[in-house]
Amino acid sequence: MKTLSDLTQTADASAPAGRKSLFKRTAPILVLAGLAAAFFGLGLNEYLTFDALREHRALLTGFVGSYGVLAVAAFVGIYAAATALSLPGGTVLSVAGGFLFNSVLGTAWVVIGATIGATIVFLIARTAFGDALRAKAGPSLRKMERGLQENALSYLLVLRLIPLFPFFVVNLVPAFLGVPLRTYLIGTFIGIVPGAFVFASVGAGLGSVFDSMDGFSATGVLTPQVVTALVGLSFLSLLPVGYKKWKTRKAAA
Fold first, then answer.
1. Buried (b) or exposed (e) across 194-225, using 16+ Cβ within 10 A?
2. What's the number of domains the chain is made of?
3. What's the pTM value of the predicted model, to 2 decimals?
4. Pairwise CA distance, residues 160 & 122, whole Å
5. What is the pLDDT of residues 103-153, one digit of tens each?
6. Whole-angstrom distance, CA of residue 85 vs CA of residue 31
């Protein structure tokens, strides 16, 4: 039979272990919060604009031309960090991918960076701060719950292809509902390819737009790449309408 002294010693021994476990679970989100604060504190958000992209065009293209693989790694890392920290400027970065690497390679690097960043958020959502992040997801959680539980991969693909919910929310909710990591990775990687290609295609035609800024005209903006991208964006914007009509007809049947 354990004495009071034995129980006290057991509690004292387990307390440090408990604190260590809590630190391991909370450390990642504390690091992300610190990085996000530093990002805005240093004014780095001013560089995630199209004006900054135009202003530093020569520097960026020169860096890509000179350093190749290092430039790709830097871009993927920046995109992953921006996604993980839920920073503004995702559209600018997606367009910049096409501008710096062409529409096909730009799409590949955007998809890889976005998938890495989204996976970081997914894993952190399972830590001790999961409840707080769950509250941030709000009513969207309940709306997605049924679909993800019935067919996780198919529904996740729909959520990635059709912008029914914010990207950050779609990163979080599957973690709360127990979606396997492998399913999440496949659904995220495949689902964001079409949108990434559209924005990278815009970026591929951005150089000619920058060149014509002194004599701005509609013909200067409507390059073949930009027209292709605009058609793609129009199609993507109509997807939610078609999806809702399909859901209504299915429910009526």
1. ebbbbbbbbbbbbbebeeeeeeeeeebeebeb
2. 1
3. 0.72
4. 14
5. 999 999 999 999 999 998 888 877 655 555 555 555 666 666 666 666 778
6. 10
Whether 14 maps to a domain, the answer reads no
On whether residue 160 sits in a domain, the answer given is yes
From the list 38, 189, 32, 37, the residue with the least C-alpha distance to 125 is 32
Instruction: Report the C-alpha gap between 94 and 53 in whole angstroms.
Output: 12
Quote the pLDDT of residue 152: 79
Residue 231 lies in a domain: yes
Query: Which distant-in-sequence residues (6+ apart) come within 8 Å of 58 by Cβ?
Result: none
Give the range of the structural domain holding residue 159, as residue numbers without chain letter: 24-252
Q: How far is CA 115 from CA 122, 170, 185, in A?
A: 10, 12, 7
Take residue 56 and report the two structure tokens written for it: 């530093």
* pLDDT computed for residue 108 by the predictor: 97
Backbone angles phi, psi at 123, to 5 degrees: -70, -40
List Cβ neighbours of 34 (8 Å cut-off, separation of 6 or more): none
Q: At what angle do helices 130-137 and 140-150 cross, to 10 degrees?
A: 100
- Among 145-149, 193-197, 216-220, the minimum mean pLDDT is found in 216-220
The encoded tokens of residue 172 equal 């979080």
Radius of gyration of the chain (CA): 22
Question: Is 92 domain-assigned?
Answer: yes
With bands split at pLDDT 50, 70 and 90, how would you rate the model's confidence at 7? very low
CA–CA distance, 83 with 92 (Å, rounded to integer): 12
